[in-house]
Every structure is written in structure tokens, then in C-alpha cells.
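Retry 2 of 3 after timeout on previous attempt. Resubmitting C-alpha cells to design endpoint.
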């Protein structure tokens, strides 16, 4: 069997429940590593530097881009977000399945650079429910919520570039579906080339 971890990208409209899902997935199943992104946005209440994000200035972020420290980056509603390279590769090499919770432009860049990456798009059961969740979360002003809803309408056009959609209706069911989806990737032929090669040469030698 291959020792290399899976690279999974999880996207979805703001408020679809990605953060909630990730937390539940990591609590329930081990062997996942959630990449921590760098961002120029302000921390929300309760967020801690180095836990939810590395909160950096615009200058620092631009330096990280120049130094090649990010495997992808994108602008989202006036802020930069990007994935630090080193952690992702280290965790995958150690055999952990790495999840990038990133928006669509970044996801497409990852697919370009790493065609074996698994792209999952998390959907709310309906647009009304999406707005209810954003309002219910209570972390953004109505103005920002409206911008995020407009952004969702734009992002919806890109869903067909993903490999799978998951509907986050009942949280626990969605967590299990995501786990199954990622674990199934381990069975792909392309994920097991070393084992296949070994079997081929063993058979030849018999
Ligand atoms: P995202 O990370 O995608 O922006 P969050 O995880 O912050 O979304 O979830 C947005 C809001 O929706 C939160 O208040 C969260 O508690 C709620 N939520 C998440 N998943 C569900 C679900 N399956 N059913 C009902 N509410 C949910
Ligand atoms: P939020 O401000 O709600 O935490 O995140 C806003 C959006 O940025 C979400 O869609 C989230 O998935 C995305 N995002 C978070 N980190 C990254 C990243 O490293 N790269 C990209 N491209 N998007 C990210």
C-alpha cells in the first residue's frame, strides 16, 4: 500500500459549514492534517494566530508570495489567503491525509499543479439556508454577508470543476461522507503504483 497521504481540497460558499465540518472530521477521525492558511484578514472573535490562520500583514503576505512559500494564493473579498507549502508536503510525506479548506480560485490552481488532488465542494441544502447560517453565525455585518452571498453566486459557476459535491444538511452524515470519499482515494491505482510495481516484479520472479 502507498504510504503517501491524500491531498484533499474542500471548498464551499462562506457559511456552508466547512469550518464546522472540518472540526467534526478531525475530532472523529485521526490521520487528517488540516493545513493552516496565511491571511491578511482580521481575526474574528475567538480566532487565534497559528490555530485558525496565520494572520499576517499585506507586506508579509507579499513577501511570502515572492519567496515561493505558498503553493497557491488568492484574493477573496479584499483580502489575501494562501497555503504554506512546507506543512502540506511534510504531512503528506508522513502519510497523513491533508485537507486544504480554500476557495475556488486556489482549488483550481491546486488541481492544475497536483492533478491527483481530490476536489470536494460543500453545498448547503438551499440558498435560503445558506443565508440563515451566515446570519446565525453572527460574525459578519449585513454588508459583508451580502458581499459573501454575491460571491457565492459567482462561485456557483465553478462547481463543475470539482470532483464531488457534498450536501451539508445533517452534520454527522456529511462528516462520514467526506471521510469515506477521502479514504476511497487511497484505493486509486495512481495512489498505489509502488505496490503494483512490486507485485508485478514478484510475479515475474516466481
Ligand atoms: P464556513 O466555514 O463554511 O463559512 P461555518 O462552519 O462557520 O461555515 O458554519 C456557518 C454556520 O452554520 C455556523 O453558525 C454553523 O454552526 C452552522 N452550521 C454548520 N453546519 C450546519 C448544519 N449541518 N446544520 C445547521 N447549521 C450548520
Ligand atoms: P474566511 O474569511 O471565512 O475564513 O475565509 C474566506 C474564504 O477564504 C473561504 O472560502 C476559505 O475557504 C478561503 N480560504 C481560506 N484559506 C485559504 C487559502 O489558503 N487559499 C485560498 N485560495 N483560499 C482560502
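Retry 2 succeeded. Sequence:
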Amino acid at each position: 500500500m502507498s504510504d503517501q497521504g491524500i491531498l484533499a481540497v474542500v471548498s464551499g460558499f462562506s457559511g456552508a459549514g466547512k469550518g464546522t465540518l472540518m472540526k467534526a472530521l478531525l475530532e472523529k477521525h485521526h490521520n487528517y492534517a488540516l493545513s493552516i492558511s496565511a491571511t491578511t484578514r482580521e481575526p474574528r472573535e475567538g480566532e487565534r494566530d497559528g490555530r485558525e490562520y496565520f494572520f499576517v500583514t499585506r507586506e508579509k503576505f507579499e513577501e511570502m508570495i515572492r519567496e515561493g512559500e505558498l503553493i497557491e494564493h488568492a484574493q477573496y473579498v479584499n483580502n489575501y489567503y494562501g497555503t504554506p507549502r512546507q506543512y502540506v508536503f511534510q504531512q503528506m510525506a508522513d502519510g497523513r491525509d491533508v485537507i486544504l479548506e480554500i476557495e475556488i480560485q486556489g482549488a483550481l490552481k491546486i488541481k492544475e499543479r497536483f492533478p491527483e488532488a481530490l476536489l470536494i465542494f460543500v453545498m448547503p441544502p438551499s440558498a435560503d439556508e445558506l443565508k440563515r447560517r451566515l446570519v446565525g453565525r453572527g460574525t459578519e455585518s449585513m454588508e459583508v454577508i451580502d458581499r459573501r452571498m454575491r460571491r457565492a453566486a459567482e462561485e456557483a459557476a465553478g462547481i463543475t470543476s470539482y470532483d464531488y459535491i457534498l450536501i451539508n444538511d445533517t452534520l454527522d452524515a456529511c462528516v462520514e461522507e467526506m471521510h469515506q470519499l477521502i479514504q476511497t482515494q487511497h484505493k486509486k491505482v495512481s495512489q498505489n503504483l509502488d505496490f503494483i510495481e512490486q507485485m508485478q516484479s514478484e510475479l515475474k520472479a516466481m
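Attempt log closed. The pocket of adenosine-5'-diphosphate (ligand 1) is lined by residues 12, 14-20, 133, 136-137, 168, 171 (CB under 6 Å).
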